[in-house]
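Team,

Forwarding the record for the chain on the shared tracking sheet. I've put the sequence and predicted structure together so nobody has to dig through attachments.
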Amino acid sequence: MRGSCANGKKDLVQKIYELYPQSNRGEDLFVKLAEFRSKNAVEFLYRNGHNDTLLVIKTFVEAARFGNTVVVEFLLDTKRIVSDIFDKAFEYAASGYRNSPTAIFLYHKKLASKNSVIGVFEQAHDISVVKLLFENEDVPVKSAIVAFDNASYCGRGSNFEVFAQVRVYFRSLDWKSVCQCHYQQANRRSGVFVP
């Protein structure tokens, strides 16, 4: 496929594209290529008619999910990615273990909603993403506690480093509120409702 794209063999690429879903459970080759860091193949298909909006959106999200920053950047440059899809891709990129460069790239685009940024802070799997957001965003106390709980609950011990580095932030907090928030979060996880 890559060789055909590089040599401009449009007819051969089109035939491969048409046959691919028949042998791969109906999956779209354009979307699948996003998982394999095949920017040239994605770009070739896009420029040769495989560029409807839904296909671009699905491919963008999958590229982010698999940490394929070059495909994410290419598809973002098409100007066909709307804000809620951008947020979803940002969240997927941050939830992966090897996708921090993609999450960081998306963050620096400054297109994510505040809710998405906070959600990413709370659930990010990579210390570099957590640290970047903590240092550059106004993170609510509740979100810091949720992130800490998630890191400890999910065994993401490296994220404890971030929280050790931000002790000064926690010193300025009203600890009664912090403890109440933490208590509510712990009970919510166990299914107990606490007003």
